[in-house]
Design brief:
Elements lengths: L26 E3 L1 H7 L2 H4 L6 E3 L7 E5 L4 E3 L15 E3 L4 E2 H9 L4 H10 L6 H4 L7 H11 L4
Antiparallel strand pairs: 1-2, 2-3, 3-4, 5-6
Helix pairs in contact: 3-6
Length: 150
């Protein structure tokens, strides 16, 4: 049979382990993020290919390709979205409730300022955010979802 007609298997996305987690798709994280968010002895149990589970209802915070998982209770601080009252922006401390209030009041200025700071060199996303990623997308999503609703 000609290999040109053989379908290669689709790459498997990293999934949160079934036993402890939600089977959701993970977000790749760096070793720097793991060491900032977890005690060193726990972070070292995870391999170089590790992932954050962003599902707010899942007990797993991090997992790796070998099936090792770390509970959200192991995190150094409470983090969003695992805890909805924790700051959405870990670098600058703004919460989802504050974003909601600004959006419902139709005020854009504070959110614009925050987004500018989050996109600047002041942001420390790799060490402050549990996913190691910027909060910009989530802040925009939350703000636009509620902007000027009555």
């Amino acid at each position: 049979m000609n290999k040109a007609f053989v379908r290669e298997p689709e790459p498997v996305e990293p999934r949160c382990p079934t036993l402890d987690g939600c089977e959701g798709i993970g977000v790749p994280v760096s070793r720097t993020t793991l060491l900032a968010q977890l005690p060193q002895e726990i972070a070292q149990r995870l391999s170089e290919s590790s992932y954050y589970c962003p599902n707010p209802n899942c007990r797993v915070a991090y997992f790796d390709v070998w099936g090792v998982s770390v509970s959200q209770t192991s995190l150094r601080t409470s983090t969003y979205p695992k805890n909805p009252t924790a700051p959405v922006c870990s670098c600058f401390g703004i919460t989802a409730q504050e974003i909601l209030e600004e959006a419902l009041a139709g005020r854009k200025e504070r959110v614009r300022e925050l987004l500018a700071k989050a996109e600047s060199t002041e942001a420390r996303c790799e060490t402050e955010s549990p996913s190691g990623a910027s909060c910009v997308v989530e802040i925009r999503r939350l703000f636009l979802k509620h902007f000027a609703q009555e």
